[in-house]
Amino acid sequence: MSVRRTSFYLDKRNKRFMGVCSGVADYFGWDVTWVRIAAVVLTVSGILSILPLIYLATAWIANPKPNALYVEDAEQNQFWTQVRVAPKRTIREVRSSFRDVDRRLRDVEAYMTSSNARLSNEIDQLR
Predict the structure, then answer these.
(1) Which of 2, 58, 70, 85 is least buried, going by the fewest C-beta atoms within 10 A?
(2) Residues 57, 10: contact at Cβ < 8 Å?
(3) Helix, strand or coil, per DSSP, at residue 64
(4) SS (H, E, C) 55-73
């Protein structure tokens, strides 16, 4: 089974009870403390009295987070959180980055292949 970084997983390493709140926080990139507080407040206030059933069903249905996903650095974790939350925006940002790199590479190629006498002399001196 391949590991999908964009799927929802229960976060068993940071769990308090079954790992659902920590999984939700990890999926959306939120602070787990605020997710837990919101779950308790919504349950106690009666706004979402069905929340405990949803919580238990999620804990029963969802898979635990694979160990391979725990060894990420912060930058990689932030990137995959953005991919999960707004994939179209992330794709636009990656395309934009590639276009910028491509433009800079074209500029370097143009400079290197131009008939720049000083550059030619420097390259000849290196040989």
Answers:
(1) 2
(2) no
(3) strand
(4) HHHHHHHCCECCHHHHHCC
For residue 58, the one-letter residue type is: T
Inform me whether the pLDDT recorded for 116 exceeds 80: no
Are 48 and 42 in contact, with CB atoms under 8 Å apart? yes
What's CA 47's distance to the chain center, in Å?
31
Please check the confidence at residue 1 and state whether its pLDDT lies above 60.
no
Are 91 and 39 contacting, i.e. CB atoms less than 8 angstroms apart?
A: no
| CB proximity list for 94: less than 8 A, separation 6 or greater | none
Quote the tokens at residue 101. 């790199």
Interatomic CA distance for residues 64 and 23, integer angstroms: 9
Query: If you search the block for the tokens 């995959």, which residue do you land on?
Result: 80
- Check if the beta carbon of residue 7 is closer than 8 Å to that of residue 61: no
Tally of residues, the chain: 127
Number of helices (H) and strands (E) in the chain: give both, helices first. Answer: 6, 0
Predicted confidence (pLDDT) per residue in 58-83, tens digit:
889 888 887 666 666 777 777 777 77
